[in-house]
Amino acid sequence: MDATFILTNFKYYITITKTNSMKLLFIALLIPTCFCQAQNNTGTEVRNITKLTFLNPGISYEAKIGKMQTLYAQAFLNTTAYFSWSSTFGSNSGIYFDPAATAQYRYYYNATARQAKGKRTEMNNMNYIAGMVETIFTQATADEYNLKEVDRRPVTTIGLAWGLQRNGLKRFSLDLNLGIGYLFAKGTVYNGDYTNETHSVNVSKFTGIGQINLGFWLNNR
């Protein structure tokens, strides 16, 4: 029997089955289409935004590429706390502070609904659908059956997410997203049950993805 629990500064990864993942991916791909017609009727447009974050410390830049579309990039320090238990290998736990980067394509879809309720849409204060790729350079295991790595190596996740961004008048910023993706990494395992010899394996799996960033926007008022 095996169990794994991972918490990454409110960023977490939960392995899910391929069948459910493919259903969710299909639904996520349909969502932007449902909102395109309504978005064409609003006068709101997104803008470029630079932010500093203190939860997952780093810097991000969001660049406008269309009326309601942006490209988002962030370089940050990823903090990972984890605990795993296996009937074969026992318990394993640790905390990692790892360099990381993410790039996202975002489509903001609910400007009309927010305006109808008298809510702000300036400074990209809307919800969005995003295609994203994230890479973390870490020694942490990518799978509960793997050993801790001696050296940092890239762990990359590609996926789709729903998110929201709220940038307040006093510069405070909240940005969070949740979705599903596919993880790629190198892992290390024992050659057998009764040996200390190891070898490298490729790890790939569907995973849940989520991130929350708190910080401050730096644009001129």
From TrEMBL:
Say if the entry is tagged with keyword Signal.
yes
Q: Which organism is it from?
A: Flavisolibacter ginsengisoli DSM 18119
The signal peptide, as residue positions, is: 1-38
* Keywords tagged on the record: Signal
Give the top-rank taxon of the lineage listed in the UniProt record for this protein: Bacteria
Which protein, by its recorded name, is this?
A: DUF3575 domain-containing protein
